[in-house]
């Protein structure tokens, strides 16, 4: 049995989460059309008869000033500083075709790593000639010198098999596995329930307030045939609360139905879901709020005391 760790890095909306979901065959990391959907380091565990690969999904690399967003950058720095067996740099092919400056900026960051695989994603969205143009530009700015290039489509799975075989080549014989072979992630069930709710909020309101939402799971009681869940949808302003609730509660009802269906599929039981909306003014800048809700270890790197 061979095992290894694989860091997944890239700018926002490059398709990092979709690639992991494709490899694992499960929606481990929520994926939406909204940039910066991923907010936490999530370990996704791939197992077969001979290998265990632990993928570490990261938030998208970006430049913003809010304290919460700096905490996300601190998570990326942690993965970059860890000595993973292999690191994948995911690039949206459109960013290469548009010669987006974020490609060069992140190139300088990722070039400090060893064992890097370059994954050019979303090739299903372009013509073959455009793929050739993207590869020529990648060569022009020296991306091909950082690591081997793998054009893929995380959506259709094209090229993912070849990429996976290369990832496995970096695994080492450790005489066992890092995690039990039936584990899909290191995260608890409650984390994924919160993520399903957040995804429902994003997909229903993504034009209005995707980054102002935080989910607090207040209660989670599992019985033999049903799971009782109570959660708060936290927003930053009163006007945002009105958006989430909707006219006569229409929006919160939609969010609740979509969330419940996803959670029931995940837990394999009926779900009784109660959703409430709470305003915590400027929570994304609130050090105490972030410290209490999972980001304490990243606040120092984000420029504040723990």
| Strand coverage percent | 15-25%
Low-pLDDT ranges: none
What are the secondary-structure elements, in order, as H or E? EHEEHEHHEHEHEHEEHHEH
Q: Could you estimate the helical fraction of the residues in percent? A: 25-40%
- The CATH C-level class name of the largest domain: Alpha Beta
Kindly report the name of the CATH homologous superfamily of the largest domain. P-loop containing nucleotide triphosphate hydrolases
The number of helical runs is 10
How many runs of DSSP E, i.e. beta strands? 10
Alpha carbon gyration radius: 20 Å
CATH architecture of the largest domain: 3-Layer(aba) Sandwich
Q: What count of structural domains?
A: 2
Per CATH, what is the topology of the largest domain? Rossmann fold
Provide the residue-averaged pLDDT: 87
User: Describe the biggest sheet?
Assistant: 7 strands, mixed
Structural class: alpha/beta
Distance between the termini: 40 Å
């Amino acid at each position: 049995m061979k095992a290894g760790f694989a860091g997944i890095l890239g700018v926002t909306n490059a398709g990092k989460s979709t690639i992991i979901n494709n490899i694992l065959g499960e929606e481990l990391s929520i994926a939406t059309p909204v940039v910066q959907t991923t907010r936490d380091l999530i370990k996704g565990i791939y197992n077969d008869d001979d290998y265990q690969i632990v993928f570490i999904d990261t938030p998208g690399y970006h430049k913003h000033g809010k304290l919460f967003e700096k905490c996300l950058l601190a998570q990326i720095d942690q993965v970059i500083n860890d000595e993973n067996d292999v690191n994948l740099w995911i690039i949206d092919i459109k960013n290469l075709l548009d010669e987006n400056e974020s490609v060069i900026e992140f190139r300088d960051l990722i070039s400090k790593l060893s064992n890097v695989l370059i994954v050019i994603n979303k090739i299903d969205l372009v013509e073959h000639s455009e793929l050739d143009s993207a590869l020529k530009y990648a060569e022009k700015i020296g991306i091909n010198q950082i690591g081997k290039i793998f054009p893929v489509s995380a959506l259709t799975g094209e090229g993912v098999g070849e990429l996976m075989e290369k990832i496995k080549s970096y695994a080492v014989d450790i005489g066992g596995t890092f995690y039990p072979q039936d584990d899909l992630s290191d995260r608890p069930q409650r984390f994924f329930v919160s993520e399903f709710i957040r995804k429902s909020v994003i997909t229903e309101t993504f034009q209005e307030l995707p980054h102002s939402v935080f989910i607090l799971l207040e209660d989670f009681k599992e019985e033999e045939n049903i799971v009782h869940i109570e959660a708060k949808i936290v927003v930053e302003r009163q006007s945002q609360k009105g958006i989430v609730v909707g006219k006569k509660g229409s929006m919160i009802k939609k969010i609740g139905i979509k969330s419940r269906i996803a959670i029931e599929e995940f837990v394999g039981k009926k779900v009784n879901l109660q959703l409430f909306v709470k305003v915590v003014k400027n929570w994304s800048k609130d050090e105490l709020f972030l410290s209490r809700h999972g980001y304490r270890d990243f606040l120092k790197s984000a420029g504040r005391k723990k």
